[in-house]
Specification:
Layout: E1 3-8, H1 17-33, E2 39-43, H2 54-61, E3 68-71, H3 74-77, H4 81-93, E4 97-100, H5 112-143, E5 155-159, E6 162-165, H6 167-181, H7 186-195, H8 208-212, E7 230-233, E8 236-240, E9 247-251, E10 258-261, H9 270-286, E11 304-305, E12 313-315, E13 320-323, H10 324-328, E14 338-339, H11 340-354, H12 358-375, H13 379-401, H14 409-432, H15 435-454, H16 460-471, E15 475-480, E16 483-488, E17 507-509
Parallel strand pairs: 1-2, 1-3, 3-4, 11-15
Antiparallel strand pairs: 5-6, 7-10, 8-9, 12-13, 13-14, 15-16, 16-17
Helix pairs in contact: 4-5, 6-9, 12-15, 13-14, 15-16
Length: about 500
C-alpha cells in the first residue's frame, strides 16, 4: 500500500504548526489501518483557492504512484468546488483513493460524489464569507483614516495602520516630481536614480513603470495621490478567472471609492501635484503607447533576450528591438538594435527551414520512437509481471482453501495482493506511454504550429504562442564577431514539442 498525505494552511498569520497537526492526523489514520508512513506534500501560507501551489502541483503530478492520498479534510486539497470535483474524478479514474481523515470523505465509498460536491460548495461559501468580512474590516480602517493597503514609497510604519513620512525617501519623491515637471521622461528619471545608486522600494533598481504608473489605478509615484495627502482606497478588486484560475484585477466604480484627507502625509504641495498631473494627461493622451498590462503587439517582444543582462528585448521605436532593461532602468550597457521586420522574417525563416520541414519531423519521429522504446516500459514484460503476480496470489488462495494456515499466511496474502496491484498499475502506465500513441499527437502539434506561423502577420498572439512552444521561454541574442544571432535552447520535454528530441540547440542569424 503506497500512501501520500497533503497538508496546507492559508495565511502567514496562521501557525506553521497547523501543518504538523494535519499530518499527525493523517499518520495516525495510516497507523490504524496498518498502512506505511505516507509521503508528505505541503504548502505553507497559500490559499486553497489558488491552483499554482507548488506542493499541490507536485502531488497531482505524482498522484498515480500512490494507492491512497490522505488530507485532514477536503478543504485542504482545494477551496474551489469545481477544482475539488475535477481532481477527485481524476484520482478516481486513476484508481487512487482519496480520504479526508477529519471530515470522513472517502472516494471508495458509494455516493462520495455528492459529498465531495457539497463540501466543495461549503469551502467556496467559507471563502466568500471571509472575503466579505475582510473587506468590511478594511473599509472601516480606511474610513477611520488608517492604512488599508500596502505601504507606498516615501513612508514608514509607526504602528498598526499608521504611517509617517520617511524623509530620505520623501526627498527622492520630490526629486522625481521636480525632474518630471522640468521635462525629463520617467525613463530618464529611473536611469538617473539607478546611476546615483538610489534603491527602489524593493531595494532593487528603478523601472520606468514604478515612476509613471497608471492614473486610472492611482499607482506609481507620479499617479498616487497619497503624496499630496489624499488616500484613495477600494479602487479595484481581485477575482479569480473562471477558466484559468488566475486572479484578475477589476476596477470598481468611483462611487465605491473611499477617499480620506491626510495633510500630515503630504510630501509635495498641491501646485506640484497639479503640474505633474497636467503633464501626465498630455503624455497619456498623445503618446499612443499601449498601457501597462496589455499583451505584446509584436511577434518577438519579450521572446528575445539581451545577450548582456538577460533582460527582455522589446520594440523601442516602432522599428527596432532593444533591451528593455537598458531603456527603462539604465542598468544594462547594451546598445544592440535589431530591425524588427528583419529579425522577425529571419527567425521565422530559420524555424521553417530547420525545424518545421517534413525531413526534420521525420527525424524527430525516428529519434523519439527510439528514445521512447529504449527508455519507456516494456509492455510484454509488464503483462508477464501481472500474470506472475496473479499466479502467486492464486497459489496462496488455494493453500488457504486447502486449510494450510500458518502465522505467515495472512502476510503472504497481503503481499501477493499488493504485488498484483503494483503490476496492474505498471501495466497501465506502460500502455499510456507507447510511441504509437504519442507520435500521432506530435504530428497534430506540428501541423498546428506550421499553420500558426504561416498566419503570423494576421494573428500575432497565435504566432507568438507557436514560437514560444517551439523555442522555449526565450531566444538569447548573442554577438559573434559583429554578427547577431538568436541562440535557441531547445526545450527538453519531447512530449510537448516538435523540436525536442533529435535536434541540437540552434542559432539563427538576425
Amino acid at each position: 500500500m503506497r500512501t501520500a498525505a497533503y497538508a496546507r494552511y492559508s495565511s502567514d498569520q496562521q501557525r506553521a504548526a497547523s501543518l504538523e497537526d494535519q499530518l499527525r492526523n493523517c499518520r495516525a489514520y495510516c497507523e490504524r489501518q496498518g498502512w506505511p508512513e505516507p509521503t508528505i506534500y505541503t504548502d505553507a501560507a497559500i490559499s486553497g483557492a489558488r491552483l499554482d501551489r507548488p506542493g499541490y502541483r507536485a502531488l497531482l503530478a505524482k498522484a498515480e504512484r500512490y494507492d491512497v492520498i490522505l488530507v485532514d479534510d477536503l478543504s485542504r486539497l482545494s477551496r474551489d468546488s469545481v477544482e475539488a470535483q475535477r481532481q477527485v474524478k481524476r484520482l478516481t479514474f486513476a484508481g487512487v483513493r482519496l480520504i479526508g481523515v477529519s471530515d470522513g470523505v472517502d472516494t471508495a465509498r458509494k455516493g462520495h460524489t455528492a459529498e465531495v460536491g457539497l463540501r466543495g460548495i461549503m469551502g467556496e461559501l467559507y471563502l466568500d464569507d471571509l472575503r466579505e468580512k475582510t473587506h468590511r474590516g478594511l473599509t472601516g480602517r480606511a474610513l477611520a483614516g488608517a492604512s488599508a493597503g500596502g505601504l507606498p514609497y516615501g513612508y514608514t510604519v509607526t504602528s498598526v495602520g499608521q504611517r509617517a513620512i520617511d524623509e530620505a525617501q520623501a526627498n527622492v519623491v520630490r526629486r522625481i516630481f521636480a525632474e518630471f515637471i522640468d521635462g525629463l521622461s520617467p525613463r530618464a528619471i529611473a536611469a538617473g536614480l539607478n546611476r546615483d545608486g538610489i534603491p527602489s522600494s524593493r531595494g532593487s533598481s528603478w523601472a520606468m513603470t514604478a515612476i509613471h504608473g497608471d492614473l486610472r489605478r492611482g499607482i506609481g509615484i507620479l499617479a498616487n495621490p497619497i503624496y499630496v495627502g489624499r488616500q484613495v482606497w477600494n479602487r479595484s478588486r481581485w477575482i479569480k478567472h473562471p477558466d484559468t484560475g488566475r486572479r484578475v484585477r477589476q476596477e470598481r466604480p468611483c462611487e465605491e471609492w473611499v477617499t480620506t484627507e491626510h495633510p500630515e502625509l503630504a510630501i509635495i504641495d498641491l501646485a506640484t501635484w497639479c503640474a505633474a498631473q497636467a503633464r501626465m494627461g498630455v503624455r497619456g493622451k498623445d503618446s499612443g503607447k499601449p498601457g501597462p498590462g496589455r499583451p505584446p503587439r509584436h511577434l518577438l517582444s519579450g521572446l528575445l533576450r539581451c545577450g548582456e543582462c538577460g533582460g527582455p528585448m522589446v520594440v523601442v521605436d516602432k522599428y527596432n528591438y532593444a533591451c528593455s532593461i537598458a531603456r527603462d532602468r539604465g542598468t544594462c550597457a547594451s546598445k544592440v538594435r535589431l530591425r524588427r521586420v528583419v529579425a522577425e522574417e529571419r527567425l521565422l525563416a530559420g524555424i521553417r527551414e530547420e525545424i518545421l520541414t517534413e525531413e526534420a519531423f521525420q527525424r524527430f519521429e525516428q529519434v523519439t520512437a527510439i528514445a521512447l522504446k529504449s527508455a519507456g516500459p516494456n509492455l510484454d514484460a509488464a503483462k508477464r509481471r501481472v500474470a506472475e503476480a496473479e499466479r502467486i496470489r492464486e497459489n496462496v488462495m488455494r493453500a488457504i482453501k486447502a486449510g494450510v494456515l500458518t502465522p505467515s499466511t495472512k502476510s503472504e496474502l497481503i503481499a501477493s495482493e499488493r504485488a498484483v496491484q503494483d503490476a496492474e498499475i505498471a501495466l497501465r502506465h506502460a500502455r499510456q506511454l507507447q510511441p504509437e500513441q504519442i507520435l500521432p499527437r506530435a504530428r497534430e502539434t506540428w501541423h498546428r504550429l506550421t499553420t500558426s506561423l504561416a498566419d503570423s502577420a494576421r494573428d500575432v498572439p497565435a504566432a507568438r504562442a507557436a514560437v514560444r512552444e517551439l523555442l522555449g521561454a526565450h531566444a538569447r541574442v548573442i554577438n559573434k564577431n559583429g554578427d547577431l544571432f538568436a541562440e535557441i535552447a531547445v526545450p527538453s520535454d519531447a512530449s510537448n514539442v516538435v523540436a525536442g528530441a533529435g535536434f541540437e540547440p540552434a542559432t539563427f542569424g538576425l
